[in-house]
Amino acid sequence: MTADQAPVALITGAAGGIGRALVPAFEAAGWRVVSTDLQPMDRQGHLVLDIGTCTDPDQPAHQQVVAALRQATGGRLQALVANAAHQVVKHSSTLTATDWRTTLGVNLLSPFWLAMAFQQELAANKGSFLAISSIHERLTKPGFVAYATSKAALSGMVRAMAVELGGTVRCNAICPAAIATPMLVAGFDGQPQALQALERFHPVGRLGLPAEVAQAALFACSPAAGFLNGSCLDLSGGISARLHDPV
Description:
- With 247 residues, the protein is of the alpha/beta class.
- The protein has helices at 19-28, 60-73, 97-117, 119-124, 145-165, 182-186, 192-201, 210-221, and strands at residues 8-11, 32-37, 46-48, 77-82, 128-132, 170-176, 232-235.
- The longest helix is centred in the middle third of the chain and has 21 residues, at 97-117.
């Protein structure tokens, strides 16, 4: 297969911990990857774009981003992986309107409008839309009201879209628990016991790896997963099955 014949994957949030695993996994499997992030990356096919502006198709900023992505994908888009995310950790009483707008814009509205912008292209190429959701879609903790709400809505949106688009575009999500990204691990600097406790709380006894999310995403977008539609894959190391009982 030549480069011109390779299926194309569009991966947002490519400079983050999970994104940096998604890109090489897809490339190793023979995909041509168009990546986006607010941060630059030293790779061909990467566009520095603010996906958070893709919340209203009538706005010029949205149209400019979509036009740049359409040119980069060249009509061969077969997988749209909505990985970009915004997380704000605040108590409900301190959340601002900007916090809500940004969180919902990046985590929910942008994936939807990008999927709609590329629906016909994905359908023509028998492609799929994949959202990187979170265990917070169902199970959360204090400080995550905005983030958890956005991820619950994202997973619900994927299920609903699968019902509407499933005959033309498969729609799925992956819902990871704690993944050992550089950002997460850095958050435990000087607190090794807290990190170990988090690891032990997962029944598998460790955190997930970005590469494991990438492999799950690769499968979900592959022809081998042709019957996978409307699924929100639990990638939690068993933590979503665990009862946290105080006694």
